[in-house]
Fold:
Amino acid sequence: MTAVRCVDLCKTYRQGEEDIKALDHVSIDIAEGGFVCLSAPSGGGKTTLLNAIGGLDKPDSGEIYIAGRRIDNLSKGELAELRLRQIGFVFQAFNLIPVLTARENVEFVMQVQGVPAGERQKLAGEILDEVGLAGLDDRRPADMSGGQQQRVAVARAIVSRPELVLADEPTANLDSKTADGLMELFRELNEHHHTTFVIATHDKRVMSYAKRLIRMLDGRIVDDIVQDAA
Amino acid sequence: MNLVFRLAWRNLWRHPRRTWLTTGAMVFSNTLLVFMIALQFGMYDLMIDNTLQAFTGHLQIQAPGYKDDQKMRQTVADIVPLAESLRAELTTASIAARGTAFALVSSEERSYGIAVFGVEPEFESNVSTIPGLISKGRFLGASDAAEIIIGAALARNLRVDLGDELTLLGSGRDGSFAAAVVNIVGIFDSGVADFDRSMTEIPLGLFQDVFYMNGSGHHVVFDAGGIDGVAELQSRVGSLLPPGQDLVVHDWDALQPGLKQAIKADMSSAFFMYGILVILVAFSVLNTQLMSVLERTHEFGIVMSLGLTPGRLGRLVLLETAIMGALGLILGAILGGVITFWLGIRGFAYPGMEELAAKFNLPARFFPQVSAMTLLIGPAVVFLFTLLAAVYPALRLHRLHPVEAMRAV
Ligand SMILES: Nc1ncnc2c1ncn2[C@@H]1O[C@H](COP(=O)(O)OP(=O)(O)OP(=O)(O)O)[C@@H](O)[C@H]1O
Ligand SMILES: [Mg+2]
Structure:
C-alpha cells in the first residue's frame, strides 16, 4: 500500500517577470512505513512539495493520493480534516502556541480531534516522556530551548499516531547533538509504529538516517536512491 | 478549566495593558449606563407616581367632553352609588367620586379664585396623597359637614388659620348662584405650588348641595396601584359602566398628556446618548480584536496547518471577546450597582433637576433605585455589541491561507 502517491505535479510561481517552476512534473510513490528524506538546495522545491502532499497548498496540475485517497481536489474543510486526523506536521521553528505549556500544546490538537480530557492528558504525558521531555510538561515554549520546543512539536505531531508525518527542516535550528536525538526518535517511531516519514532537509546528517533519499533540483527529481540507514 | 477557555484567557493577557484598556472602556460605560438608567427610570416612576397618585389617579370616569371643556353640567349622574358599586364589583377601596367647581373664596381680608373639589371623605385618601399631607388640623369628616381643607400657601394669602370661616361664591350646575360658608378644619402642605396655592377640598355631599349637583359629580377616580395594570383595569371598568348613561373611562395618559410626552422626549435623547457610548465601545473592541488577530497571523497559520478550520479559530476569537465582555459586564454592573446603591441612600441632585422637579412634583434630592433591570440592561447591550464587533475580525480568518500565514512573522 502506498502512503503517498504524487503524479506529475507542477506548480509555478511568478516572481516579477520570471516564472519559477517550484514543482516540475514531479511523480513519486512512498510506501507505507517509508522513511524518506527530500533533499535539495535552497529553493529546490522541498517545502512546495511537502505542502502539496499535506494539502496545505494546491499544485497547478497533477494528482496527489494519501493512503489511496485522492486529495488534490478536496475542499478546504476536507483538507483540514485530513490534516487533523491523518497527518502530523513538524515545521522548521516557532511552531508552538506560546501561551500554552508543553503538555497543553500537545493536548490542543487532541482536543480539536475530540479526544476526551482524561485520555488526552494521559497520552500527552506519555508522549512527552517518550520524546525525552519528562518533567517539562508545564513549561511554556519561551522557557524551553530550541531543541526542547522542537520535541514538543514532534510530540504534538505524533501523539495521535498519524499514518504520515511530514517534517520540513525539523533540525534547522538545532545543534548536531540535539538533531541526532530527534532523528533517533523519528527512526524509533518509524520502526515501532510503522509511521511513514517524509523529511525535507539539506542537512547531511539527517539524510544519513533515511532509508530512501530523494534529491531535487529546481523543482525536478534528479535522484532517488534506497540506502542503508546509518 | 476547559483547554480552549484556558487558551482564550491566556491570549487575552498577552497584552495586559491593551486588554485592560478595552475592558476599562467597557467597565466605564457599563458603570455609567447602570447609574444613568437607574436614575432615569427611577425618575420616570417618581414623575408618574407623584403626579398620578397625588391627585389625578390612574383612571377616571367622566362625562364625554368634560376632560377638554370642564363644564359644570358635563356630569356623572348618581356618582356616589356608582362609586360604591364599583368598589364592591372590583373589591377595592381605591375608588372615589369627586366633583369640581371654580369659585371665589373670601376671608375677612381677601378673596381668591380657586378650585373647589368635592370629595368622599372616607375614600379620598385611597386615591390621593393630599389627605395624608395635612400639616395642621385634620382631613374632612362627615359627608355634609360645612368643612374645608386648603393649601398652606392659600391660607397665608387669605391670612386665615384653622377654625376660621371662609365664604365660597360660584355658580351651580344650572348656572344659578351658589354660595356657602365653610369652616377650615385642615391645612395641607403638598410641596406642589399649584396645589398649595389654589386647591381646596370640601365633602362631596356639601358640594352637591351648594352647587345644585342633584346627586351627580364629575369624576370617579381610580388608583390602580401602579401603571402596569392600568390597561386591564380600564377595560374592566369600561364593561362595568351603567347602561343608559354616556360615560367614558380615561387613562392617565389621556388625563395628563404632558407626562408621557415628557418621558418619551427625555428617553429618546437619553437613548441616543447611550447609543453613541455603546458604538464607541464597540469600535474600541473591534480595533483591539483586529490587532490581536493580525499579530497572531503566524500562529494561526500553524494551527490551521495542523487541521484547525478558520471557523474554529473564529470561535476562539469570539470566546476571547466574550470573556473580555463578561469581565466588563460584571465589573461594570458591580461598580455601577455600588455607586447607584450608595447614591440611593445618600441621595443625589444634578443641575437642571429643579426644573423637572417643580414640574412633576419631584423631591429636590433624588434616590435612584437599583433593580435587576437597571443593573443588566445597559451592560447586556454593551456585551452584545462587543460580540458583534468581534464578528468581523473572526470572519477575516477565513481569508487566511495557512502557508502564507505561516510565512508572516
Ligand atoms: N509564495 C511564493 N511566491 C513566489 N515564489 C515562491 C513562493 N513559494 C515558493 N516560491 C519559490 O518557489 C521555489 C521553491 O520554493 P520552496 O520553498 O519549495 O523551496 P525549498 O526547497 O523549500 O527552499 P528552502 O530550503 O529555502 O526552504 C523557490 O524559488 C521559491 O522562491
Ligand atoms: Mg523550505
Observations:
- The longest strand of chain A covers residues 2-15.
- Chain A touches chain B through 29 residues (CB under 8 Å).
- Chain A has a mean pLDDT of 91.
- Chain A has one domain: 2-226.
